[in-house]
Predict the 3D structure of the following.
Amino acid sequence: MKALKKIFILAAAVLSQTAFAQTTIKIASVAPARSSWDVQQRQIAKEWATITNGEIILQFMTSDAMGGEGGVVKKLNAVRPGQKAPIGGAVFTSMGLDDFAPKSNVMTLCAPFMFRNQDEVNAVLKEFTPTMQKAFDEKGYVVLGWFNIGWAYFFTSKPAYTPDELRKVRLAIGGLTSPALSNAFKSAGYLTQDVPADKLQSSISSGDVEGLFTIPMYAYAAQYYKNLVNVTNIPLAPVMVGFIMNKKDWEAIPDKYKPALMQSIKKAEAKFIADQKKMDAEYLSLCEKNGCKVFNPTDAQKKVWEDSFRKDLHFMYEGSNPVVNKQFYEQIEVFLKKYRGE
């Protein structure tokens, strides 16, 4: 009888371990399918499975199937108090992160011409991530990593080599669930409109949308470049992506694995940093090889763009739904001046 009891106890322990071994954390992601970004996510999932001996499985799913980032925001919250949220985390762009946790002020990092290079982006993230993390703490989530997936450019159906020419183009900026950026451009005199992700391709094909503010990888992977054949080669702002996870899911992972799991994320961050500039150039080149016309402005022409956007910056922090937090922007500016030795 005692032997039988021991067998039952042993079997229960094995079943318990097996159940944990099958723990799957669903992560919604905006990464285009089969893109280098998507490949890197799969690598992270593979490494996490190896590190935890198969105990933790990350399942990345496309956010498009959930209604875009706005739909993902809803699924990060439990339907009823006490219930588990439908998904355990997300890989969000700055706009999705801002929609989910507005107090993080992460969209401030997207102010045009704030940064001169990736090193400045890295320094600011290192300095201000603890400040931004507080807003996610309030939501019950932890930020595991930051990735710069590229710098945003204007892709247009007709040439727009100056800000004045761009103001005559019907633009899609931001998204239906995050209209603040679009509204800021509209206040500055641009013809912007909010188009949901599943309608963007058809709107571009029909000519309703004549321009897009996006990264080269998106323009190429989604084939927007086929209609938006003109590119002004001025990287205006980094497009940041944050990897967030439900704090309860993160805390449930045995502590012994966490240093190696975080190291996996840091390795992915480093790879993105190393590859980012190369990827922008490669995707711009691919667009050009397939019919796009890339306009390379002179330093004087670039200054016209920078002066115009800096002059219009106040539109980004004014109004009831500002894109940029003025106080946070000024703190970053002070930090960057010190960082540059100015």
About this structure: The first helix runs from residue 2 to 21. The radius of gyration is 22 Å.
